[in-house]
Amino acid sequence: MERLQKKIANLGYCSRRKAEELISSGKVEVNGEVVRKLGTTVKPGDVITVEGNILDTSREFEYYLLNKPKGVVTTTNDEKGRKTVIDLINTNTRIYPVGRLDYDTTGILILTNDGELANLLMRPDSLVDKTYIAKIEGVITIGNIQKLRKGVIIDGIKTKEAKVKLRSVDKKKNTSIVEITIHEGKNHQIKRMFEVLGYKVIKLRREKYANLDLKGLMPGEYRSLSIKEVKVLYSLCKK
User: Fold this and answer.
1) 102 noted as active-site residue
2) Which listed residue (78, 102, 129, 213) is catalytic?
3) For the chain, how many helices (H) and strands (E)?
4) Mean pLDDT taken over the chain
């Protein structure tokens, strides 16, 4: 037996919170009957209908690791008609991206129909490391590197401690390349952390996500995650 809202989320239809809203508003049916009680449980074989859509409860989960290229939006569809990360994956399964990368940001992105894993990875208290390589305008000082490590104030809240390494400096072009690892997921966090200190991010790439890296993947290419890799992600989320 499994709670209805969890089952809907795990099947990739929406988040658990959104599923609870749909249940409360009478938009979910189990075996042809409208269900409004959030404590409702379902069992294998039950037919679940959400907003008139019958969910496929027999499908298996799919997990993909994409090297997101620049100029692609991290969403399931785009009202402006731009190419999305979903367009790059060859599958008939309804998958969605875990978190977001900006239009001009490149690098690692996970896509899946496993709602439970997606929710765990995107939780505010998730301790999963994400490593970025940022090219910034200006020659960054040791003092500012220390500030990034200890945390800076964004919207009145101090960011958590980060791992920061200076990779290179080009004094002629007045640029620096900095490696920074965080486990938070605030909106545009890396760009905003540098902006607080007076640096503009010119290029940004997410190079690592937990136990995963970009090895063997060119921009726009993807691969399926192994069972072992998925198990490691789950173990990191539940520490």
Assistant:
1) yes
2) 102
3) 6, 17
4) 91
